[in-house]
Amino acid sequence: MKSIYAKLIFGFLVTIIFSFSVTGYIAVRSNYSQIESNVQEELESTGDFVCGLIENVPDDKIDHTLQEYALSSENTVVCYSMDNGYHVYGKKSNAVSKEKIAEYFLKDNNDEKVYVNKHNILSYGHLRHIKNKDYYIFVQKDMSRDKNSFISSAVLILGCIFLSGSVVFLAVADIIVKPITRLTKATKELSKGNYNVRVDCVGTDELSRLNQGFNQMAQQLAKQDETRQKFISDVSHEFQTPLTSIQGFANILKEEDLPKEQREKYLDIILFNSKRLSTLAKNMLQLTLLDREEITLEMTTFSLVDQINRVISLQESQANQKDIEIVFEKPKKDIFIVGDEQRLEQVWTNILSNAIKYTNQNGLITIMIKKTSKEVELTFEDTGIGMSKEVISHIFERFYREDKARSVDGNGLGLAIVKSIVDLHHGQIDVLSTVDVGTTFIVKLPIEKESLKERLSFNKS
Ligand code: ATP
Ligand code: MG
Q1: Nearest atom (ligand 1) to Cα of 359
Q2: Which positions ≥6 away from 394 have C-beta within 8 Å?
Q3: What is the pLDDT of residues 235-252, one digit of tens each?
């Protein structure tokens, strides 16, 4: 049974057959006993009427009268008396025989009344003393007509219920099956890569919720596809620029009569671009690792002051080249935190290198650490080119670089890495900036050691 339609119809038929059989059985049972008791009553009064006829009609006319009565009432009347013998009036085929009367009354039955139901023929017999004679009078009625008429009306009613039920059922099945068919079609479209496909989801029933879920999934896939395509185009663009430069200068270097000075200059450019490519590949790999669901941080307790000092000393030469002063306002007491030392060092390195990159000659960078009972707050403040609100809303996106920043070397991955690492430490990063005034990056990390350890002991959730 392939289609849901067929399954529903099969289910409907099984339900109908089962419920009709049970209902029919119970109805027939109770109706037959009702018919039988009605016929019993009817036969008793018929018996009384027959007795009245025998009593009141002259003897020579009794036969004729009883025959007429039996035919018109469609009953069989049997009269037996020792003096007048055995007589049957009306339909003779099922009439109770003389022997049976003897069996019912004369042998071991002292009752004056008897009921016999045989093959749907109900017989009522009774003994009456009329005109100084004993009469055994039987009236018999064929109940099959009454029973058959009940069966035909029951069949008619059930048939009507079945037909009208089928019409309603098909309409309801259509209401259920159509949206499923539409959803199946849409799913096929989606699997072919058409992420713009959507289904109607009016209402709050299960199917509407399923459709809503489908639409959300399609939307998510469309977004992911867009991100993937953008990522591929960004990556190829980022690779293309240094590669083109390397190719171009390598070609020039082939010329033998190139002055030594120029040769060295071109070689430096080639080295610079290959270093850029290597950093790009390293950063991309780093981001892919951070994206992995199962990433675990290597948690240790370490001195934050020592770490910041290390980061500053590694970047000092770049800052000196632009006469930028780096001021580290050390806390009175050393601060120890629990975290992935190597990855957090990268966070501070990226933020500080940005501050140096995007601050002009003679600028100032101030680094501060503040500790509260719940968190450690690190502030990197520069007097650089600053950013507009629009730029700030994009800086954590991969490959995003403000146009102004393009004159400086970079791929736009540094802050994306920073954000991932801070998130993994359940921290928070905020940016305050004013164009041409400067920028402040504030990183907050939780320090409740136990809970931090606990939270970081399992994978990125
Ligand atoms: P990469 O870090 O990959 O070498 P990048 O520094 O350009 O390249 P991000 O560190 O991700 O990339 O920074 C994204 C963008 O945010 C920068 O291109 C720049 O436009 C802006 N930005 C970041 N830090 C600052 C800052 N301190 N002052 C002004 N603009 C900044
Ligand atoms: Mg950067």
Answers
A1: 28
A2: 400
A3: 898 899 899 999 999 999
Distance CA 179, CA 200 (A): 9
The confidence band for 459, taking pLDDT boundaries of 50, 70 and 90, is very low
pLDDT in tens, 386-416: 999 999 999 999 999 887 767 788 889 999 9
Task: Name residue 155's amino acid.
Answer: V
Burial of 47 from C-beta contacts in 10 A (0-12 / 13-18 / 19+)? buried
Supply 461's token pair.
């959730």
Which residues does 81 contact at the CB level (< 8 Å), separation at least 6?
Answer: 133, 134, 135, 136
pLDDT of residue 100: 85
- Please state the pTM of the whole predicted model: 0.63
Cβ 438 under 6 angstroms from ligand 1:
no
Dist. CA 75–CA 88, nearest whole Å: 11
Rounded distance between C-alpha atoms, residue 16 and residue 9, angstroms: 10
Whole-angstrom distance, CA of residue 318 vs CA of residue 357: 9
Beta carbon of 439 within 6 Å of any ligand 1 atom: yes
